[in-house]
Structure formats: structure tokens, C-alpha cells
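USER:
Make up one protein:

ASSISTANT:
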Amino acid sequence: MEPALLDQRQAVSDARPSAPARPRRADRSVARLVLGRLLLLPLLLAGVTLAMFALAQSAPFDPVVAALGERALTMDGPTLASMRERLGEVSALQQWAAWWGNVLTGDLGASTSLRRPVAAVLAERLLWTLGLMAAALLLAVPLGLLLGAWAGTRPGTLADRVVGAGLLSLQAAPPFWLGLVGIWLFAVAWGWLPTGGATSLSADRAQPLDVLRHAVLPVSVLALSQLPWYALVVRDATRDALAGPAVRGAWARGIPRRQILRAHAVRPALLPLVTVLGVRLPELITGAVLVEVVFSWPGIASAVVESALRLDFALLAAITVLSTIIVVLGNLAADLLYRVVDPRVGERDG
């Protein structure tokens, strides 16, 4: 080979980026993303809790009566007026600062509605709620992907229309209505499943099979309330991909149908699915609140209703902080998963 040609090839080789450059650039992008979200989290928690204390102080409710409950009926008027005056002298900012001061020392306060330390309430109920939401996601996401891909690869057919109409109808149904229908059918009419709770009344402690039997209806209802959002976005993305030039070119090149559908139609639908996963996370928590109330599930979400009705600010603030952390970390996980599905996203970010 001529020396000049060797020099030319060497110059081209030197001009190309080295192989590890892309992974290093992607790692830096991921590190910046994670660090930015973690630095933003304390500011977000501070703002959310401050807004909660400000709204609570301006609410037209009597915090003294809410805190004392039935004991307020046995107290005289001057004592109640004195307590209201003392509470009114403390601004929302002072309450917020005092609450964070206690939280940073490990003291979450005591729940006035449940008569227990807030930390004990969270420790007792958190796993029930996380388990309910995780099981619903594990059921809804794969089923939504399969159902949406199946309907999306049959655009305009009777199956596509039936699935689309069914998903839209299911999307319009609120979770509590699905829960009531499920209880009526499977617990009352047919007697296959229990009406609510996490364990049988006769059980001394939680048994795995008993908990699984009680979890079938709450998990199924929560999964069904999320399923249409995942299935419809996969169905629409798959239909758009099938009409794109990449699929038409693949058909022209004679690529097998199964490979075209998997690589060029269904795979691009994963990106909008990941986006919907992150966006729908607050709605998943809201749906868990409704499902836990309907089925008397002993999770932390049902405590939200109790703390809001009884103006239990200590428990309400702790649940607000916890919900905010779950939403921020869930969105961060969705963004990281987005980069796994499409590595070009991280490369574009730098």
C-alpha cells in the first residue's frame, strides 16, 4: 500500500472520535440530570410545604376544634378563644420554620387524628401503599404495551375499533366507580373475593396468601384505571410509525413483517409510553387514595383523607413531603429510562 494512502487513512482515523467518548458523554449527561433533580428537590419540598401551611392558615376551618375533636365540646368558651388567639399569633411562616426545624432533628410530630407519632404511622402504612402502586404498575404497563401494540398493528380493523372504544370508555370511568363495580360483582354477587381490607378479620397476623387474595381487587382496579393511558399512547404511536417512511422503506426492502412490526412500529412507541409513565405518576397516587378508601386498604394514601378532614397538619405535611419525593424520583426514573430506550436523548443533551 502506498505511503500517502496510509497517511490519509491515519489522518481520517485520528479525526474520528474515540470509541469511549460517547459513553463518557452520556455518563456526564446522566450525572448532571440526577444531580440537578436532587438539588432541586429540597427547594421544591420547601415551597410545597410553605404553600400548604399558608393555605391551611387561611382556610375557613377552626384548627382548635379540629385538633381537640370531641374534647372541644367539654371545654368552655374562654379557653377555646384563648387557644385560637395563641394559634392566630403564630404566622404560617413561623409554623413552617418550626415544623422543618423539628423534621430536621428527626421529629415528625404527632398525628392529632390517629393519636400516634407521624413516623410510626408512615412506617406502618408506607409499604402497603408502595406495594399496591408497584403491583398495579407491573400489571398495567405490560398489558397496556401488549394491548396497544396489538391494536396499533391492526389499524382500521374491527379489533382496533373495539379495543379503542373499550379503552376510551375505561379511561372515562373514575377509580372509585370501578372499585364499587368490582366489589358488587366479585365480592357481593359472586362471592369470589373479599370486599375490602388487607387481611381476614379472623387472622391474627398477615398471611401472604390471605393478603394476595385481598389485594386482587384493589390492584386490579388501580391497574385498570391506569391501563387506558398506556395502551392508547402505544396504539397511536404504533399507528403513526406504521404510516412513516421508515416502515414503507422496510416493506420495499422485503424485510419480514414480524421484524418490521417489532423494530419499526412497536419499539418507537416505547418512548411516548415512558413519557406517560412519568406524567401519570401523580394520578397514580391520586388513584391509590381513592382505591384505598373504597377497599379500606391500610395504606398511607387513605390517611390523606383522614388528615385533611381532621386538619391534621403534622400528618398532612409529612404525606405531602413524601408524595412530592415519590413524584420527583419517579419522574427522574422515567427520564433515565427514556435515555435507556433512546440513547440519542442523552447524546443530544450533551
Notes: The chain has 16 helices and two strands. The CA atoms of residues 307 and 316 lie 6 Å apart. The chain has a mean pLDDT of 80. The two ends are 39 Å apart (CA to CA).
